From TrEMBL, chain A:
Gene3D superfamilies membership: 3.10.20.30, [2Fe-2S]-binding domain
CDD domains reported for this sequence: fer2
SUPFAM superfamilies: 2Fe-2S ferredoxin-like (SSF54292), CO dehydrogenase ISP C-domain like (SSF47741)
High-level lineage: Bacteria, Pseudomonadati, Pseudomonadota, Betaproteobacteria, Rhodocyclales
Protein name: 2Fe-2S iron-sulfur cluster binding domain-containing protein
2Fe-2S ferredoxin-type domain segment(s): 4-80
Keywords in alphabetical order: 2Fe-2S, Iron, Iron-sulfur, Metal-binding, Oxidoreductase
Length: 170, 289
């Protein structure tokens, strides 16, 4: 097949699309749906600017064929804000001034979201390990690491999430 | 070539292993198989233009990592590196593989890339490949005339080439069950952590006290395929692991490898550090480092 009918559930909305099979998920998000918050960086899965969550897992949308994503739940950085109100991760990046040019920020935010969902209280080493796939050419990473720490501290329902993760480990 | 534009191809989406095998035997060499796609997608952006791309996305039942203390570890063709890390038994019993998986690429790639895909890429730099070579195991290939098993020692034929025939689908990898006294370790050298390795090494030792009964030593980035250091293994077998023995083992490694100069390192540097890295991996496996 050269084209495929697919349904994507993006940020809680359903999209029925006919996509060319050689289009990446990033191509479809940006060029066909106009969701330009997800960025094109290297195109080869090294920089992390295109990071989105598919079924709550952080992946590189530049290395993902849209045609193989039928029925999947996808979250982009815009999906974290509620009618323009930033969520705790986005707000932490602003508060800690962890943004200079901002191009890597949506990917950093999505990677942080996937880290905190699994590990609500990460150590600095765990934060740095998690962010290895996200390159920033401006900040030198210190402020980004601070922002992730702050996001962990300000996560809504933090105590309940920590309890659930502890139970899962046991 | 561009990192943005994918070539034109025909997408095949089989719904079962049987259908995938049938497609492979019909289309033969014109098909490229994709599981996670982290290697195939990059290859398509820069070099390869397959006529047909077969995605395993809709093939059910291949995303398992199953441990049995008697039979070993079974890893399905769609199990990702992250799936492997989620299994406590991998960390406990297959230490070299767990460590290779943990340092493999980036979180995003670990969530997508498959363990079998790393073997099938047949790159000398594959981290999981190196660890699996040291641990040992068999790759199960499903063809139109049935299943066959190929030992990991016979799996890589040359750079980018495996024993998989064009009409076969690699369905699973089986690692041997853990034995008492068996221990393993993995080490790699890179410039920054998400780079491909400039050198990687994995060891599996069968120990009785401080005496090495048997050893499997694997090294990557030093030959066209991952390499087993069989001459160096012979220096370990039946020996107590004294400082002198480890010194002789380290000294034997440069004579057994044939690294090249490339953008990640030089042949000279790789030869210089290869013995040291192997010795450290042996010490780590034995809990001394």
């Amino acid at each position: 097949m050269k084209n495929r009918d697919i349904t994507l559930h993006i940020n809680g909305e359903e999209y029925r699309l006919n996509v060319a099979v050689n289009r990446t998920l990033l191509d479809v998000l940006r060029d066909e749906l106009g969701m330009t918050e997800t960025k094109y960086g290297c195109g080869t899965g090294e920089c992390g600017a295109c990071t989105v969550l598919v079924e709550d897992k952080a992946i590189n949308s530049c290395l993902t064929l849209a045609a193989t994503m039928d029925g999947k739940r996808i979250t982009t950085a815009a999906g974290r804000a509620d009618f323009g109100r930033l969520d705790h991760i986005q707000q932490a990046f602003v508060d800690e001034a962890a943004i200079q040019c901002g191009y890597c920020t949506p990917g950093m935010v999505m990677k942080t979201a996937s880290l905190l969902a699994k590990n609500p209280d990460p150590s600095e080493a765990e934060i740095r390990h998690a962010l290895e796939g996200n390159i920033c050419r401006c900040t030198g990473y210190e402020k980004i690491v601070k922002a992730v720490k702050k996001a962990a501290q300000t996560m809504p329902g933090r105590a309940a999430v920590a309890e659930r993760c502890k139970e899962a480990v046991q | 070539m561009s990192s943005r534009i994918l070539p034109d191809f025909d997408l095949l989406l089989p719904q079962s292993v049987a259908e995938a095998v049938e497609l492979l035997s019909t289309h033969r060499d014109r098909i490229t198989v994709m599981a996670g796609g982290t290697d195939v997608m990059v290859a398509m952006k820069f070099a390869q233009s397959p006529a047909q791309l077969m995605s395993l996305e809709n093939v059910p039942g291949l995303a398992y990592v199953l441990f049995d203390p008697e039979k070993g570890l079974r890893i399905g063709a769609k199990a990702t590196v992250a799936d492997l890390l989620a299994q406590a038994e991998v960390k406990r019993h297959y230490r070299a593989l767990w460590h290779a998986a943990q340092t493999f690429a980036t979180g995003q790639v670990r969530n997508t890339a498959t363990v079998l895909g790393n073997l099938l890429r047949a790159s000398p730099a594959g981290d999981c490949s190196c660890a699996i070579y040291a641990i040992g195991g068999v790759v199960v290939l499903q063809g139109s005339s049935g299943r066959r098993e190929v030992g990991i020692d016979d799996f890589w034929l040359s750079y980018g080439v495996t024993a998989r025939r064009p009409d076969e689908l690699a369905v699973e990898l089986i690692l041997p069950p853990p034995a008492a006294g068996s221990r393993s370790a993995f080490k790699r050298m890179t410039r920054v952590s998400e780079d491909l390795a400039k050198l990687n090494v994995a060891v599996r030792l069968e120990m009785s006290g401080n005496t090495c009964i048997d050893a499997r030593l694997a090294m990557g980035c030093v030959a066209p395929t991952p390499l087993r250091l069989t001459r160096t293994e012979a220096l370990l077998k039946g020996r107590e692991l004294t400082a002198e023995v480890l010194q002789r083992v380290a000294a034997s490694v440069p004579g057994e490898i044939s690294p090249i100069d490339d953008k990640r390192s030089t042949a000279e540097y790789r030869k210089q550090v290869s013995g040291v890295l192997l010795r450290r991996a042996i010490q780590e496996a034995c809990g001394a480092a």
